[in-house]
Amino acid sequence: MKHMKFFIVALLMAALMLGASCQAAELQRAWMEYEDYSGGRAEQSVEDAENLALIEAMLLRAKDNVAKLDECTMNCTLFCMNTDGDIVGFYCATDGCPYIYSELTKTAYSLGDDYDAFWAIFDQVREGMGFDASSFFDLDNED
After folding, report:
1. What is the mean pLDDT of residues 41-58?
2. Is the alpha carbon torsion for 107, 108, 110, 111 positive or negative?
3. What is the C-alpha separation between 42 and 66, in angstroms, rounded?
4. Which residues are paired to 102 by β-bridges?
5. Fewer Cβ close by (within 10 Å): the C or N end of the chain?
6. End-to-end C-alpha distance for the chain, whole angstroms
7. C-alpha distances out from residue 42 to 14, 26, 128, 130, Å
């Protein structure tokens, strides 16, 4: 529980209560940058309030995880800027691992059940990846 409190403070730089649905999100902007080993790049910025609130909620729900990140390909960086202008960065796995790594807390977190929704928000990055993302991102399965 103490780790979760630290994560919330580190991520948002302030105490955050998500109980009131009308409360504005603390995130002002989020953007993701992807670069693969062959020089392929993709970028996406999120500034609409609905998606920012979703990203914020996903990050708050993420659980500490002692993941072996050396087994994951971490080719994306997610940057989150709060309303005070403070920026927190997360490395994101791009190979199907559900993990993000906070530069601030030096901790790996699992997106858990939010994994597919997270990548649905960052669909432009997912589609711009330099490999067949469909092998890892089965979000639009129309079987």
Report:
1. 95
2. positive
3. 28
4. 90, 107
5. C
6. 41
7. 31, 25, 5, 9
